[in-house]
Design goal:
single chain; 272 residues; MetI-like fold; 14 helices; 71% helix; MetI-like
Length: 272
Amino acid sequence: MRKSRAVMGNLLPFIIAIIFIFPIIWMLFVSLKPQGLGISNPLKWFLPPYTFTNYVHIIADFQVLRWLLNSLFVGIVTTIITLIVTSLAAFAISKINFQYKKFIFIFFLIGLMVPGEATLIPLYQIAQSMHILDSYIGLIVPGIASPLGVIVLKSFFDSVPKEVIESARMDGCSLFRIYYSIVLPLAKPALASIAIFTFIGSWNNFLWPYMITFSDHLYTLPVGIPVFNSNYSQDYILPMTVNAVSSIPLIIAFFFFEKQIVKGISFSGIKG
């Protein structure tokens, strides 16, 4: 009885993993099929012939690679600036005494309650007045605001002993030196968590880039893929190839940063 339970306990996670990974496997096999191939039996999707011509065609003749680079650029820059801004704000709220500090922190908490869709029209009007529509700046700047990042980092900075900060100040360290040399190195797990969620959020963001980009060379992948797929609504293979091209970087990143991603997800439940 115990052996059967142990077998079921090991088999069930394996079955669930296969169910979740099967669409990715199917997508990769379909992307390797010759263009225009008719398939009557679903099992034939996984059988030869295979070809990489679709990938060469997609990268050489369309702007998919440009959209991929746009997504990487916007995601990386947004993540870096978000880490700088949120860590500075969290450090100020946590370690610097100033007037209305509690009110400002409550203001960040209220920011979590506002759905992103409710801010689209004001953001669009601000971007229009600043003449940053259809630009990389317009794609990056709105993603920098991260109330969750400030709250998580503030909670982490609060756990840094006051004695450490006071000792550094007695040794002549400036506030910025304390922030850069003492607090930030201790906050690496929190920073990694925020970086992961910020990059994934930027990579998957569709609505805002769709609203403000008018030139196809500025499209990110979430915007460019639906536009591409709309031209091939009767064909499986090329759309699947585009989806595979957009998914492969994240799959590779997951294999390299699996531990950091899992730690980041678990760290999002940090104690206040």
